[in-house]
């Protein structure tokens, strides 16, 4: 399809109307009747199988206006479907591999429902960060989680430290700014999505990992799935292809030697590798010329992640990515979280990550919110189950057919042997009666 555009091919004028009429008439019933039919369009070129073994290409393109069906995989027909028609209203059809996917919005844009990895900001604040994930808090209900330093000022951090690293609603300092959270940030005309309800800040020690997180109670744009925003590559939007449905987490030992993945508000989708051999301790540099009242965050027992692909601007995470969750890049359909972006080492490509398990422990939960209970996930689960059942049925029928074939072969062999036996007997003895032959055949 790209070749058609690049080489400037076009559908002839006399073909345009008949094709438009055919697609208009048949598109809806065809899309409904064929489970894996995803796109119906038109092309001035038709691909045909190439029977010339000396040519490496498996198909050739010939000039012929046709209607194109895009399916997930060619040469496979869903067990309940009929083959796609060879012609529509007398117009030839062609089959290609391809699928229609919806392109979501970018992380810094407004979303109808909250996705992980989108931009967040507190009212009356110029700091922005990333929405990490969602937890089912035993007291507050469904909450979003992000980095505390994108939300709090010096006085609020000071109150948090005085309350043993936990700032709750009843302990919030008087005269503080409003606790409303916005997506995207309010300075981008964002929409209010909830209220800050708790902040957790622990420096940590040589045995325990420190962390700096904020919880906000979700009151608007409730999340519906475990997907992430889209990202723009070479001026084209695309979905990242990762989902965090189950909300599962794991310890750092599981991440040893494996690539890591994260989606942040600024740098989007990046992959990296972790240094787990030695822990890292950090204290935020006091840039008083920039933010005079900024509290110096100190965190012990963190781990470092460096980018794998140097084409990612040599950064695993960047400014605005604080709060983004870090996952093992293993199962894209159901990720497992190992940490949260806390910051980075200025002038280098190194990102500083807080282990996730201590964070969830202090939130009184063991995992993130699971989306498997939503109608959409139930539907996907049912489709997956249906597919597995169909595969098992296909296998069972195949085995049954084989057994029937084997039984028929054995039966015919027995009949042939019996016939030969009868024939040999007739040469030496009296020929058996018709009734006896019928009985022998039946046996």
Overview of the molecule:
By secondary structure, the protein is α+β, with helices and mostly antiparallel strands. The chain has helices at residues 2-6, 13-33, 154-162, 356-362, 375-426, 434-442, and strands at 37-49, 59-71, 87-88, 91-97, 119-122, 128-130, 133-137, 141-147, 166-168, 180-183, 191-202, 211-218, 231-233, 236-238, 260-264, 268-283, 298-307, 325-328, 337-344, 351-355. Strands 5, 6, 7, 8, 9, 10, 11 and 12 form an eight-stranded antiparallel beta sheet that branches. The longest helix is centred in the C-terminal third of the chain and has 52 residues, at 375-426. The model has no long low-confidence stretch (mean pLDDT 84).
In short:
With 443 residues, this protein is α+β, with helices and mostly antiparallel strands. The protein folds into three domains: 2-97, no CATH class; 119-373, Thrombin, subunit H, CATH 2.40.10; 389-442. Helices cover 23% and strands 30% of the residues.
SSE layout:
Elements: H1 2-6, H2 13-33, E1 37-49, E2 59-71, E3 87-88, E4 91-97, E5 119-122, E6 128-130, E7 133-137, E8 141-147, H3 154-162, E9 166-168, E10 180-183, E11 191-202, E12 211-218, E13 231-233, E14 236-238, E15 260-264, E16 268-283, E17 298-307, E18 325-328, E19 337-344, E20 351-355, H4 356-362, H5 375-426, H6 434-442
Parallel strand pairs: 2-4
Antiparallel strand pairs: 1-2, 3-4, 5-6, 5-10, 7-8, 8-12, 9-11, 10-11, 11-12, 13-14, 15-16, 15-18, 16-17, 17-20, 18-19, 19-20
């Amino acid at each position: 399809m790209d070749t058609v555009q690049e080489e400037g091919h076009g559908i002839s004028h006399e073909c345009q109307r008949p094709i438009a009429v055919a697609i208009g008439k048949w598109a809806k019933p065809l899309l409904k009747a064929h489970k894996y039919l995803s796109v119906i369009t038109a092309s001035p070129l038709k691909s045909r199988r190439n029977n010339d073994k000396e040519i490496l290409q498996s198909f050739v393109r010939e000039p012929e206006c046709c209607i194109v069906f895009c399916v997930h995989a060619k040469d496979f027909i869903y067990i309940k479907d009929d083959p796609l028609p060879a012609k529509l209203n007398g117009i030839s059809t062609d089959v290609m591999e391809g699928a229609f996917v919806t392109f979501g919005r970018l992380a810094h844009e407004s979303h109808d429902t909250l996705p992980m990895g989108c931009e967040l900001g507190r009212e009356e604040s110029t700091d922005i960060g990333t929405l990490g994930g969602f937890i089912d808090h035993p007291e507050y209900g469904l909450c979003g989680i992000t980095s505390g330093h994108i939300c709090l000022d010096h006085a609020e951090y000071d109150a948090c430290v005085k309350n043993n690293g936990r700032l709750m609603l009843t302990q919030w300092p008087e005269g503080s700014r409003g606790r409303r959270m916005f997506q995207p940030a309010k300075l981008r005309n964002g929409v209010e999505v909830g209220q800050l309800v708790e902040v957790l800040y622990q420096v940590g020690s040589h045995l325990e990992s420190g962390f700096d997180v904020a919880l906000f109670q979700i009151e608007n744009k409730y999340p519906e799935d475990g997907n992430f925003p889209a990202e723009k590559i070479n001026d084209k939007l695309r979905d990242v292809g990762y989902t965090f449905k189950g909300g599962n987490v794991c310890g750092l030992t599981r991440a040893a030697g494996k690539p890591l993945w994260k989606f942040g508000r600024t740098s989007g989708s990046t992959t990296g590798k972790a240094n787990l051999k030695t822990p890292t301790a950090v204290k935020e540099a006091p840039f008083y010329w920039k933010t005079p009242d900024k509290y110096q965050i100190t965190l012990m027992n963190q781990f470092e992640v460096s980018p794998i692909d140097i084409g990612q601007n040599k950064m695993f995470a960047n400014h605005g990515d604080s709060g983004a969750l870090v996952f093992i890049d293993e199962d894209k359909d159901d990720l497992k979280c190992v940490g949260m972006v806390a910051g980075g080492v200025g002038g280098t490509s190194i990102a500083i990550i807080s282990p996730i398990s201590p964070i969830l422990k202090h939130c009184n939960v063991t995992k993130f919110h699971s989306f498997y209970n939503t109608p959409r996930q139930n539907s996907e689960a049912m489709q997956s189950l249906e597919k597995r059942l169909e595969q098992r049925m296909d296998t069972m029928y195949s085995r049954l057919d084989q057994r029937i074939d084997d039984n028929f072969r054995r039966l015919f062999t027995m009949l042939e042997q019996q016939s030969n036996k009868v024939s040999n007997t007739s040469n030496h003895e009296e020929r058996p009666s018709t009734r006896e032959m019928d009985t022998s055949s039946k046996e």
